[in-house]
């Protein structure tokens, strides 16, 4: 007579019609795809500044910022969006010297990531645009999956 533990083990490992190798591969593939979609969605960096950049400078700033955001957040560049709005009317301390206001939003952005991101983004902007770090504000947003859409659906 089989003991209860050996009977349970046999029942757990017994293959069924539902657990064929191809169905397991398909299920694993779906899980990986969902995990990648959860990990990679949509950081968006918006840079608003009162300085004027020529077309090449603005494109270079956006391209380099895309790489920086993707690397900093561990996300694919494929999903990173960067918008550069230049020539805006921006005053800081009642002064119109070069300044910038940035917004970085991402699903799953953690508060613990923000100090490092603030440092790297401020250094990046100062190096690329000449805007002093003490004239740059950055707003960080952790976006809700259900309140953000892409490709005809939300991330929920």
Automatic annotation (TrEMBL):
It is found in: Secreted. Residues 26-36 have a biased composition (Basic residues). Keywords: Cytokine, Isomerase, Secreted. It catalyses: 3-phenylpyruvate = enol-phenylpyruvate; L-dopachrome = 5,6-dihydroxyindole-2-carboxylate. Residues 1-40 are annotated as: Disordered. The keyword Lyase does not apply. GO terms for molecular function: cytokine activity; dopachrome isomerase activity; phenylpyruvate tautomerase activity. One of its GO terms (cellular component) is extracellular space. Its EC number is 5.3.2.1, 5.3.3.12. The keyword Cell wall biogenesis/degradation does not apply. Pfam families: MIF (PF01187). PANTHER family: D-DOPACHROME DECARBOXYLASE, MACROPHAGE MIGRATION INHIBITORY FACTOR. This is L-dopachrome isomerase. It comes from Oceanidesulfovibrio indonesiensis.
């Amino acid at each position: 007579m089989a003991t209860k533990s050996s009977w349970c083990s046999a029942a757990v490992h017994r293959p069924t019609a539902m657990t064929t190798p191809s169905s397991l591969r398909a299920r694993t593939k779906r899980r990986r795809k969902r995990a990648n979609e959860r990990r990679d969605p949509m950081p968006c960096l918006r840079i608003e500044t009162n300085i004027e950049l020529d077309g090449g400078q603005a494109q270079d700033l956006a391209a380099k910022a895309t790489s920086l955001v993707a690397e900093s957040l561990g996300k694919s560049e494929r999903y990173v969006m960067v918008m550069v709005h230049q020539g805006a009317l921006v005053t800081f301390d009642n002064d119109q010297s070069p300044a910038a206001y940035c917004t970085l939003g991402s699903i799953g952005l953690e508060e613990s990531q923000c100090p490092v991101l603030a440092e790297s983004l401020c250094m990046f902007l100062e190096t690329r645009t000449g805007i002093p770090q003490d004239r740059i504000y950055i707003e960080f947003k952790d976006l809700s999956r259900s309140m953000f859409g892409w490709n005809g659906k939300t991330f929920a």
